[in-house]
Amino acid sequence: MSVATETRGWTRIVSIQRPERRNAVDRATASALRDAFTEFSADSALRVLIITGAGGVFCAGADLKAFDNDVDHPDGPMGFTRAHSEKPVIAAIEGYCVAGGLEIAAWADLRIASEGAQFGCLERRFGVPLIDGGTQRLPQIVGLGRALDLILTGRLIDALEAERIGLVNRVVPAGAALAAAVELAEQIAAFPFGCVLADRSSVYAGLGVPLREGLSQEAERGKAVLQDAARGADAFSKGAGRHAGS
User: Fold this and answer.
1) How many Å separate Cα 204 from the centre of its chain?
2) Rounded to whole angstroms, how far apart are CA atoms 17 and 37?
3) Alpha carbon of 80 to those of 21, 47, 88, 166: distances in Å?
4) What is the DSSP annotation of 88-129?
C-alpha cells in the first residue's frame, strides 16, 4: 500500500508510504493520493487534510525510475496538484521535500516543517519541468525573486531559510511535524467552520483579480455566514474568547 489514511477527529491524515523510494510518487501512488483526496473532499465530517510522508521523508518528487506519471491527468501527475480543495490543507514535512514533493507542499495552505527538513527544485538537475503547480504557487507564497531563485538554481535550502522566506509557516523539532500539524488542524477545525471556509475561499478568489472585484467577492461570502458572526458576537458578549486560551 503506497498511501495510508488515518482520521483524528475532524482531521484526515494522508501519508505517502514509500520510504524505500524517499516517498517518490509513481503513477499508482498518484492515483492512490487522488482517491484519498476525493474521499476527504466528499466527507462532510472531515474539515482539514494533512499531507505527510513515512520514514522521516516528506516526498522526493516523481519516481524517475518508474517515470510513468500521467502528465495529462487533469488533477496533476502527482495526484491532486491541479485540483482545488474546498477545505484547508496542511503539509507536515520531515526530511526531503523536493521536486514534485515541494509542489505538493506548495499546494497546501500551510506548511509545518521539522528542523531537519530540506526544500528544493531538484528536478532542475535532471531536466524535469515543474508541472504540478510549482511555477504558479511558489511566486505567490515567497514572491517572484525568491521563487525564481529556487526554480532556476535548484538549490537546497534548510527549514530555517524556508521559514525566513515564507515557504514554511512553522518549524518544530525533528520528528514533531505531524503532531504539530494535527494540533493546528484541530484548532482550525474547531472554529465556526462556515466562516473559516468563506474567508479562505475569499483569499484564493481574490488572487489576480482587481481589488474592487476581490472586495465584492469578500463581501458576498461574508454576508453568507453572518449567522456564525451573530453567534460569535453573542458568545463574546457573555465573556467567551476574551483571553488567550478561552
Assistant:
1) 13
2) 15
3) 20, 17, 14, 23
4) -EEEEE-SEEETHHHHHHHHSSEEEEETT-EEE-GGGGGT--
Nearest one of 81, 75, 42 to 59, comparing CA atoms: 81
pLDDT tens readout for residues 65-117: 999 999 999 999 999 999 999 999 999 999 999 999 999 999 999 999 999 99
Across the range 61-66, mean pLDDT stands at: 94
Phi-psi region of 48 (alpha: psi -120 to 50; beta: other; left: phi over 0): beta
CA 153, CA 124: separation in Å to the nearest integer? 7
Of 118, 127, 122, 213, which is closest to residue 174 (Cα–Cα)?
A: 118
Number of Cα atoms under 13 Å in the Cβ half of residue 17: 11
Amino acid at 209: V
Active site residues: 103, 123
Q: How far apart are CA 66 and CA 194, in angstroms?
A: 42
Give the strand order in the sheet containing 157-158: 96-98, 118-120, 157-158
